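Quick entry, no commentary yet.
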Amino acid sequence: MKLVKSLLLGTAAGLTVVGGAQAADLPVKKAVPIEYVRVCTAYGAGFFYIPGTDTCLRISGRARAEYGYIGSDSRNVPGGGDLSGFTGLARFNVDARTQTGYGTLRAFLRLDAASRTGHTKFASGTNLRIGYAYSGTGQDQFGRVQNFMNVDKAFVQFAGLTAGRASSFFDFYAADYEIIGSSLGSNLASTNLLAWTQKFAGGWSATISMEDPNYRKNPLFSDAVGSTGLVPGQSGVNNFFTTAPTPIILATNAAGNATAVTFVDAVQRSRMPDFVGSLRYDAPWGSAQLSAAVKDINIGGGIAGSAFTNLTPAPGAVTTPLGNPAVAALLAARGISPGAQTEYGWAVQAGAKFNLPWIAPGDGLYLQGAYGEGANNYTGINRFTAGYLSNAATYAGNPFNQYLSDAVVNPLTGKIELANSFTAVASFLHYWSPEWRSALYASYGEVWFSQGARQAISQTTGIIGAGQGLSPPSYLTNLAGYNLSAALRDTYQVVTGASLIWSPVKDLDIGVEGQYIKTGVKSGRVNDSSRGTPFTVSSEDVYQARFRVQRDF
């Protein structure tokens, strides 16, 4: 047995030696090194290095649910009856930064997507008109069911340069403390721009920005109702073609009514960018900014093929302002150019933010004011009512519309006459405790138009009032209709509100906000379209409330 045991042990030892030698001769496959994600501390919390690069990346987002209610006078009013609204919103942010010899190279992306239904302040017509929202075509085809998609941000920043889709450098307060976000004032979510910012010592910086004009254009006033009563599409005074025609009066009768009218193309084209400049100061006490903008307002020449009341062109003549000798003579007699015209609107804005930690940590106060000519989207006078419309209802089924055109084409002179507007807003944020906070804000604004242009427009029968005429200097044959028409009336608006927000844990907000809005004519009264003749009003008001649950990460 001892012999057998010795043989077995010897054999095993021999096999071990041989096997070890063979294993040593085989190639060894090494494991791929594992590169762990490293935290990047250079740009704040949440950044990490993209593996294999020196670029720091932060991915964040937001989920939001909102439920709202707005008052309405009557379910029986056409367009009335929508009281509630619902929103579910998703936001995705990507922030990539790399340190270079020229400073930080940054790319920032933000995508917003939402499902929105309900009244006009939820299923937004403004966003529908600018292409952010897309209406459903199922059981509801009135724009009250929308999917919302917006490339909110997509810009590159490098050595003072900002290029891409970003917030306008004109804006300052931009409803920072609000839930509903419709206080009067400039608050353009995003625009396409190319800007240069220069920083100076002591907290000063200056920016020059070239910005997309299409996000700041409000239509010119254009309402072509022909004195001949022809329907749209027929040849004659009321020929709309494919553009927005505005009438130019070529002749009047003894009563002052228009007897010869032509049309010009009143659609504003994208001809030049808006130019924005801002000067900003940042300090421990807060910040302040002065900004200005200039933009073009343009119309085209006469619409080819449009006809003219009581004008008989010469045999073989083409009935256009350029080709019809009779029309050309009447235009020349009034000093009206038959070609395109351009005027320049402008706006200025001043704002300041004050940090108020001596009241409570996190407290702050914003003050801001803006004034403009032909620049209603810059002053933000249309922030609550609507954007990208000549006029709009302040709520469904309201007594009268508010007019918001950037300019009016005077049908007697053929000139572009700019609208004027201003807004002012104050907003205060207070922390009752680290978990509870409230905002209280109030804003006021006015918009007014050339009354000479408004009187001249009344001569193109049916635009203002019903069949009224105008004889020099200012006598109206239907003075009552003119005085009670809401068209191009000077108006004021008040938007004020308050909120209460609970944040039980970091990055979670549960809050509610109530808002009161009043819109009125600055003088006189207007017809009450919600009740009909003979009722008139001087103002209208409405309230709304919104509840929000929001989680940021």
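second:
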Amino acid sequence: MNLVLRRSSSLAPVHGYGPSSLTYRRDIDGLRALAIIPVVLYHAGIPGFRGGFVGVDVFFVISGFLMASLISNEIARGEFSLVRFYERRIRRIFPALFAVLVASFIAAWFLLMPAEFAYFARSLKAAALFTSNIQFEKESGYFDIGAQMKPLLHTWSLAVEEQFYILFPLLLMVVSRFARRHAALILAGLLLISFGASTWTLFQSQAEAFYLLQFRAWELLLGALLAFGVIPMPKRPEMRAGLAAAGVLLIAVAIFGFSDKTLFPGPAALLPCLGAALIIHARDEWGPASRLLRSRPMTFIGLISYSLYLWHWPIIVFSREMTGRELSLPQGGVIVAASLAAAVLSWRFIEQPFRGRVSLVKRMPLFAGAVTVVIVAIGLGDYVAHHGGVPDRLSSNVRKVYASTYDQSRFSLPPCFADSDTTGPTVADIRAGKLCLIGPDGSSKPSFVVWGDSHSGAMAPAIDAAATQVGITGLFAGHASCPPLPGVQLTARGDSERCGKFNGAVRDLIVSRHVPLVFLVGYWPKYVHDTEMPNEGPYFDPSVPPPLEDRSASIVQTLDSLLADLTRQGTRVVLVSDVPEMGRYMPEAVAKAMIQGTSTDVAPPLDYVEKRQALSHAILSRLAAKYGATIIDPLPSICGNGRCDAVRNGLPLYKDADHLAATFATTLSPLYVPALSELRGALTTTSPGIDARY
């Protein structure tokens, strides 16, 4: 239905920008360039542009201004049509976007491993439906390595804009009919609500504040308010020049002053957004900022900015996939040049033919083609995701290696393992001893507990095999990202409370049942340094030094207190030192090396691992000596002669970057036989074990 609003209103903008009926502004194209350049340089790893991501916020302000100018102008003239509006959006957004989706799918088919390809497939479907911001919010944060290896991650901002484009015209139509005199006030109220919600949510879930429309709408609404002349137009040229210069300065401060450690968006986003708003509002034509923005290079980059935004990120991600490491400075420069070339070609031969009234592609074929491409993208995404990333693309030997990704035991999965607060054993179950058995499932009562985070689940097959050999049974208590330290203060928000309940229940079980032996297993280097290895994920760069900052105070204090309590009640403690971190997902790295015909010796150097583990080793050794605890160190079983093994018997030792594959973990059982044999000998003359029901 071609819904056209033909009622005059006071929604007419004071000044505008857009197709024939609105005035073209070169400075806004220059502002687009000021937004896209730092985004590309930041993503390409060019030094100095640590806050380049704020360019997206500048785009949001521009989009809000242009849309409000166009829609309100047409509503004021009684000519606004939803069908015509959405047709313009399809012509502007779809052609280049779908070209990028097709090219990315082809590259992903040949370059991505099954798990990566399955993630890509889900993002392909979401990008086609303009819901990728919601998809990526569910998956991960923007700045982590997983996000940095997703070829369609950047489509989140398109999704935010398109969702806004669906709702905003309807809002203006309703306001025009029922409250046209209060349009600016209504928009300002919505802006304040969105900004307040964004600020509050930032401290609850940064990912939600970053990705979701309701927390980003204020940036687009800021641009929209400018179209209604809420602030009086500066009359003096000097004032306009000063405002534009101040706007450029605010954006520059954000670009060069922010980093991925900045709490963002929220109040920090005010800097680039207000900067963009000042430039748009100033309408400067002769000042230094205007001369920069109106220059030919800047306006040309502004014209190709949409294509540049679309193409640069997949080029970066797939380049990383091919090189297997972070881009060097020369490689980053090549990426920028390649992105510019792709953008020029895309703008000229893909964008331009669909733009304007002279386009040879008429409305109905345009709509039909858009719907068809969306359906095809959804179908492909569903197929690839449903088939687990289509592993049949790989040769049989590569598939066998990659299958180690899924090589995990029951101790790493619910119901034995708690990967969230809603999975695994409840607090009541733990206190009652209703946990998964480890060792032989016989008539003997459990006599030990394996307690830890996800690394305990990965190591459990070794303890299980040893306990079976010795003939002694225990209990397994593992929770994701929760070290076996009751009451420890963890950096990640919510972790302390989440882990506290689980760990408190395990401690209560051990104390109340007088458990004679406890294995404490954890990702110790991560906790004492409060960070994982650099590049933890698909690739690893040994030239980046491991994080060595000592942030162990709360860990040492809590572990000391726990060991004192357990020792006092007669429980013997075995501290299991962590396995070497690999820095990359090993099955993927080994499989890619096989495909490329390069060496599968992809583990980090031993001296790198030793530096990383030095602090945790020192802490565990000191406390073990203080309380007479035993230390079991799996490192010598994995590393030796100056190197660490990535592969044995043709298979990776790890299922990802820091969790052992279950098949290999089982081979480490001899490490645990002495402690369990000693326990069995002691039990023959003391109590038979933990009195519990299973």
